[in-house]
Amino acid sequence: xxxxxxxxxxLEHYSNPLNKGLLDDESYVKVNMNSETCIDNLDFMYKIEDxxxxxxxxxxxxCAISTSSASIMTELLIGKTKEEAINIMNxxxxxxxxxxxxxxxxxxxxxxxxxxxxxxxxKCALLPYEGFKKIxxxxxxx
Length: 142
Prior knowledge:
By secondary structure, the protein is α+β, with helices and mostly antiparallel strands. The chain has one domain (3-139): Sufe protein. Chain: A (Alpha-Beta Complex). It is built from five helices and three strands, in the order H-E-E-E-H-H-H-H. It has a three-stranded antiparallel beta sheet, covered by helices on one side. A hairpin with a 2-residue loop joins strand 2 and strand 3 (52-61). The longest helix has 21 residues, at 119-139.
């Protein structure tokens, strides 16, 4: 993926984020994520049924990296089982940490493959996935 394509994907998901907007629905599991180093403060809502992520919503104030990462993550995880979602999360984290990962699993999220060059932005890209880790702890109760 070339630099222009990466920027275009990030900008599109920042300008027109998918699955943005919270619901008043108690069937969703909620988690808040904020950053100590950036303006990022996002709320996530997950609807999980029969070991499948049926829906994810998010909203809040965040930089372009966190917002676009959250938008892309929602698209990657919706419809996935717990195991599939964990695989996606682990591959994303590995990519950000410059470890081996499966590019095919990450699809558009590959636009962050060079974010490690800006260490202060790594936290922004990882914030949505750190929120998903919190959901995994709650998943046992669902």
